[in-house]
Amino acid sequence: METPEALLARLELEVVRPLDGFLFGDYRGVFYGRSLELAEISPFSPGDEAERIDWPATARTGEVHVRRYREERELTLWLLLDGSPSMRFGSRRREKYTLALELALAVAHIALRHGNRVGAVLPAGLLPPRGGKAQALLLAREALRPGPPRPLGEALDLLGRVARRRSLLFVFSDFLDSFHEPLARLAARHDLVAVLVEDPLERALPEGGVFSFFDPETGATAEVNAFDPRVRAAYQKRAAALREARIQGIRRAGADLLLASTEADLVPLLLGFVERRRRWSSRAPKASS
Questions:
Q1: What is the pTM of this model?
Q2: Taking the CB of residue 24, how many other CB atoms lie within 10 A of it?
Q3: What is the pLDDT of residues 129-179, one digit of tens each?
Q4: Are 89 and 216 in contact (CB under 8 A)?
Q5: Comparing C-alpha atoms, which of 169, 194, 180 is closest to residue 119?
Q6: Rounded Cα distance, 168 and 158, in Å
Q7: Residue partners of 252: CB distance under 8 A and separation at least 6
Q8: Cα–Cα distance between 262 and 91 in angstroms, integer?
C-alpha cells in the first residue's frame, strides 16, 4: 500500500499538474457554480433576469426589485468518503474506496492550491476545514486510517451538521445504502456533487466461470454460473435496474452527478466533469460588482 506521501506525489504528477495547467484558470466559475452570496436588493434595471426578482421587496415598495449577488471570497470544500464495506470491492485497477480517495485528493489538492479550505467526513472521523499544503497530507493520512462502518445516511447527516455555511460538497459513495432524504437536504443548502463509484463487475459478468459472491454488508454468500448466458443476461438486467435507480435517486435529490468506474483514468474523467461544470456555471446567475 502507498504511503500518504507517495500517494500525494503520484497524484500531483499524474493528475493535478495536467488538470491545473489546462482547465483551472477559471477555477472558481467551474467549481463554485451557483454558490453566490446575496449582496443587496435593488430596483430592477434593463437586462436583469426575471428569476432574480425579489417578490417581497417588490410587494413592499410597489416597484420591481431584484437580488444582486457577489461571489464568496473563499471557497470551503467538504468531502465525504463512504467507508462502508461495499466500497472495499474492486475487480480492476483499484478498489472503489481507493478510486474515491484518489479523486477526493485530486480535487482537494487543486482547491488548496487556489487558497481555499478543505474539510472532510471520513471513516476514521471528521477533518475540520483548513487551508494550506499540510491539509492535503493530513487528509491523505486520515482517509487511509480505518474506521468503524457508518451508514451513508448517518455520514450525510453529519456532513449537514458540520457544513454550516453554503459550501461545495463532494460525496464519494456507491450509494448502495439509503441516501435520498439526507442527500436532498444537503443539495437544498449547498452545491453538491454526488460521485457514484462503481466497478465493471457490478454491471456485467464475464463469459464463463463460476463466481462466488460475498456481501460484506450482510455476510451473505452466493455462487453464480457465468457459463449460462441466461444467468449473465438476468444479472446484467438486474444490475442495470439497480444502477438506474441509484442514478435517478441522486438526480431527484438535486445533486450533480459524476459516474466514476474503478477502471477509469482520472485525468479524462475529471476533464469531462470540469467541462460539463463549466457549461453549467456559464448559465448560472452572474454576480454584480
A1: 0.82
A2: 17
A3: 999 989 999 999 999 998 988 999 999 999 999 998 889 999 999 999 999
A4: yes
A5: 169
A6: 15
A7: 180, 184
A8: 8
Task: Print the SS3 string covering 219-276.
Answer: CCEEEEECCCHHHHHHHHHHHHHHHHHHHHHHHHHCCEEEEEECCCCHHHHHHHHHHH
**Residue boundaries of the structural domains of the chain:** 4-29+73-281, 36-71
Which residues have CB under 8 Å from 77's CB, separation 6+? 107, 108, 111, 116, 117, 118, 119, 129, 167, 168, 169, 170
Listing DSSP states for 67-126 in one string gives EEEEE-SS-EEEEEE---GGGG--SSSS-HHHHHHHHHHHHHHHHHHTT-EEEEEETTEE
The contacts found for 285-289 with CB under 8 angstroms, 24 or more apart, are 285/34, 285/36, 285/49, 285/51, 285/52, 285/69, 287/36, 287/39, 287/68, 287/69, 287/70, 287/71, 288/39, 288/68, 288/69, 288/70, 289/70
The H or E element that residue 141 is part of is helix 133-144
User: Distance between CA atoms of 156 and 192, rounded to whole angstroms?
Assistant: 11
Backbone angles phi, psi at 208, to 5 degrees: 90, 145
Architecture of domain 4-29+73-281: 3-Layer(aba) Sandwich (3.40)
CA distance 43 to 58: 9
In the 8-state DSSP scheme, what is residue 41?
E
In the numeric block, which cell numbers belong to residue 49?
Answer: 433576469
User: In the predicted model, is pLDDT for residue 25 greater than 60?
Assistant: no
d(Cα 156, Cα 39) in Å, to the nearest integer?
30
Q: Are 156 and 129 in contact (CB under 8 A)?
A: no
Question: How many Å separate Cα 106 from the centre of its chain?
Answer: 12
- Whose grid coordinates read 454460473? 225
Distance from C-alpha of 176 to C-alpha of 88, rounded to nearest angstrom = 13
CA distances to 187, 242, 289 from 48, in Å? 26, 43, 14
